[in-house]
Specification:
Largest sheet: 7 strands, mixed
Structural class: mainly beta
Order of helices and strands: HEEEEEEEEE
Number of domains: 1
Helix content: 10-25%
Strand order of the largest sheet: 7-6-5-1-2-3-9
Radius of gyration: 15 Å
Distance between the termini: 21 Å
């Protein structure tokens, strides 16, 4: 058995996701890791390579997709990385610091929910968020 879901239904779900991410006094964040992805919400197994701070609201729903908006379009400072181990996955936390979801990371156009121009991040550089959307 499978579901057939309308675009309006998907869009409404993504409005709920956006609203959850925007809960709290701070901004939603995306922590990006090069470690193997653990089960949802489990300890990440290392320090984040970069923490992307999202705008508030954190995105806009267009044609059913939640298009993420970075607070700093030029990119956040990369904290960890020497370019040899690529970013693999990302953890979303809401503005109160609560875990929301984990997602794949890829280069722009690569299919990950979180995308960057380059996933081989080097500490001291910047990691601008490429157009990224949650379906």
């Amino acid at each position: 058995m499978s579901l057939s879901i309308s675009l309006d239904f998907v869009g409404a779900a993504n409005v709920g996701r956006r609203d959850f991410l925007d809960v709290g006094p701070g901004h939603a964040t995306i922590e990006v890791f090069s470690t193997n992805r653990p089960p949802g919400g489990a300890p990440p197994g290392g320090a984040p390579m970069v923490v992307v701070v999202l705008a508030k609201p954190c995105g806009e729903v267009i044609d059913g997709l939640l298009h993420l908006l970075a607070n700093e379009p030029a990119g956040e400072l990369i904290l960890v990385g020497d370019g040899s181990t690529p970013a693999k996955w990302a953890r979303f936390k809401n503005g109160a610091g609560a875990w929301a979801m984990d997602a794949d990371v890829s280069v722009e156009g690569g299919g990950g929910e979180v995308q960057f121009p380059n996933v081989n991040l080097i500490a001291g550089g910047r990691a601008p968020l490429s157009p990224s959307a949650i379906g």
